């Protein structure tokens, strides 16, 4: 068998295997959805297990002050210091809430186990070396990645022994020039889903794909922190930006400014897809997913940087 035929054989084998796995997962997911929607959801023990709201709606934002305070106390009971190093205090927050049937069904899927499986698979070195380059190029064509920006591309893609190394690839020097005159720059590649000014002093809302999220819930601020932000609204402005990393994007995070980080918050949750379509389908998705929040100060005041986990990249 010639080298060209061997390359075609292995490429076709990998492609057919990936397609077969995707089709199988789609069939399993659809079957589980139908089973969940028409059978399992009718059992009280299932609704209790997944904290499913009996009204199939999110708790109303107009609930009484007493109930909000009770939920806040329950949430804060799970906050505990983990470690202190340098000037960063790290805390761990376990999220508890009711959810709709769509959310509960999605949360019932083994997304964390699936992510671990793919992570292990992506760590397996690809042989023969000759098939690495066409495989990586095919991935970039599928997800609109620029192979020419890779540190070892496009002529030396075989350098990346496995897909995990390629996914975490570095960029060539100079392909992302940084504006040194700007106070804030983008911390990552991606599509800007939303950005703007936080205009509501009472709610402190940010809006992503038409879905409002409160800063209090997204960052797990307590009431005193919210009140402190509200008190500064008259003398300063608060801006936000939400950036979605496409699978084909450069997957590294950088500091958006010269700032001092004072606290790191790890908020437990799910590893659901954060594609824009899913954000619309599941309104509270960004609150459900696991995330890490960095809090600190830069020359203009408060700064936060939040990395939200997703399927296969949690």
UniProtKB/TrEMBL annotation:
Name the domain of life: Eukaryota
Q: Which UniProt keywords apply?
A: Decarboxylase, Lipid biosynthesis, Lipid metabolism, Lyase, Membrane, Phospholipid biosynthesis, Phospholipid metabolism, Pyruvate, Transmembrane, Transmembrane helix
Q: Which cofactor does it need?
A: pyruvate
Q: Which GO terms describe its molecular function?
A: phosphatidylserine decarboxylase activity
**Compositional bias annotation for Low complexity:** 57-74
What EC number(s) is this enzyme filed under?
4.1.1.65
Q: Which Pfam families match?
A: DUF4750 (PF15938), PS_Dcarbxylase (PF02666)
- List the GO terms this entry assigns under cellular component, sorted alphabetically: mitochondrion
Q: What does this protein do?
A: Catalyzes the formation of phosphatidylethanolamine (PtdEtn) from phosphatidylserine (PtdSer). Plays a central role in phospholipid metabolism and in the interorganelle trafficking of phosphatidylserine. May be involved in lipid droplet biogenesis at the endoplasmic reticulum membrane.
Protein name (Swiss-Prot/TrEMBL)? phosphatidylserine decarboxylase
């Amino acid at each position: 068998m010639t080298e060209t035929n061997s390359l075609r054989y292995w490429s076709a084998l990998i492609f057919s295997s990936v397609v077969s796995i995707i089709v199988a997962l789609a069939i399993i997911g659809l079957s589980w959805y139908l089973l969940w929607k028409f059978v399992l959801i009718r059992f009280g023990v299932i609704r209790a297990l997944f904290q499913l709201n009996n009204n199939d709606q999110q708790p109303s934002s107009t609930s009484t002050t007493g109930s909000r305070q009770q939920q806040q106390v329950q949430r804060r009971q799970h906050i505990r210091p983990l470690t202190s190093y340098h000037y960063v205090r790290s805390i761990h927050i376990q999220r508890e809430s009711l959810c709709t049937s769509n959310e509960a069904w999605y949360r019932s899927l083994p997304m964390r186990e699936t992510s671990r499986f793919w992570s292990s698979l992506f760590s397996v070195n690809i042989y023969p070396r000759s098939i690495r380059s066409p495989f990586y190029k095919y991935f970039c064509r599928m997800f609109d990645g620029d192979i020419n920006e890779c540190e070892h591309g496009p002529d030396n893609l075989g350098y990346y022994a496995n897909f995990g190394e390629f996914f975490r690839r570095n960029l060539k020097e100079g392909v992302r020039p940084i504006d040194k005159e700007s106070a804030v720059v983008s911390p990552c590649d991606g599509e800007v889903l939303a950005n703007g000014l936080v205009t509501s002093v009472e709610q402190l809302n940010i809006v992503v794909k038409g879905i409002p999220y409160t800063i209090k819930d997204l960052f797990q601020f307590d009431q005193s922190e919210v009140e402190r932000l509200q008190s500064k609204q008259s003398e300063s402005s608060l801006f936000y930006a939400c950036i979605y990393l496409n699978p084909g994007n450069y997957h590294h995070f950088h500091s958006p400014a010269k700032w001092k980080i004072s606290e790191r918050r790890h908020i437990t949750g799910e590893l659901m897809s954060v594609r824009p379509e899913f954000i619309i389908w599941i309104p509270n998705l960004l609150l459900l997913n696991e995330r890490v929040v960095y809090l600190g100060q830069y020359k203009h005041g408060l700064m936060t940087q939040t990395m939200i986990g997703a399927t296969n990249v949690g």
